[in-house]
Amino acid sequence: MKIAIRSLALVFSLALLSCGGKEEKKEGFSVDRTKTTEKATEAAPESSELPASQRITLDEKGVGQIKEITLDPEIDMEMAAAGEAIYNSNCTACHKLDKRFIGPSPKGIMERRSPEWIMNMILDPKLMTEQDRCAKDLLIEFNGAAMANQNLTVEETRSILEYFRTL
């Protein structure tokens, strides 16, 4: 029995010694895991640049059917009420008034975006995220959560815009 244990210990010791101590060279594929920051800094916006949700782009009208819109100085409260109802039924799943959610908060949107841009984004969010720089940046900022096309009419969208004027 002692001979069997000694033999087993000897075989085990030889196995351990034969596995360690040498560096094996394998041919084929290898990966260098060093970090590079050149490409990351080229693609990322400058650190001093504001996130898209906070940028002010009042001079941009976006891409879409709305080219020019003139707002009355007085808010049409009847239209705003209709817009609020549409907003509450179609938009609150992703947008909250006082905080960031799946999408940005519409509060203060009239101070950051032109009326044309807002309407174009509501009417055709896919086109906007494909062709408008700010809409693309918003898509990235909100983790790729694309705005759903609600298939609203121009009149319904205009009502939402009027509601946004009251916020």
Radius of gyration: 30 Å
Low-confidence stretches: 36-48
Strand segment count = 0
CATH superfamily: Cytochrome c-like domain
- What is the tally of helical segments? 8
Choose one word for the global shape. rod-shaped
Order of helices and strands: HHHHHHHH
CATH topology: Cytochrome Bc1 Complex, Chain D, domain 2
Q: Write down the oligomeric state.
A: single chain
- As a percent range, the share of strand residues is under 5%
CATH architecture: Orthogonal Bundle
| CATH class wording | Mainly Alpha
The domain count comes to 1
Q: Please describe the biggest sheet, giving its number of strands, its sense, and whether it closes into a barrel.
A: none
What integer is the average pLDDT? 81
Q: Structural class of the secondary elements?
A: mainly alpha
* Share in helix: 40-55%
Our measurement of the CA-to-CA distance between the termini, rounded to an integer number of angstroms, reads 89 Å
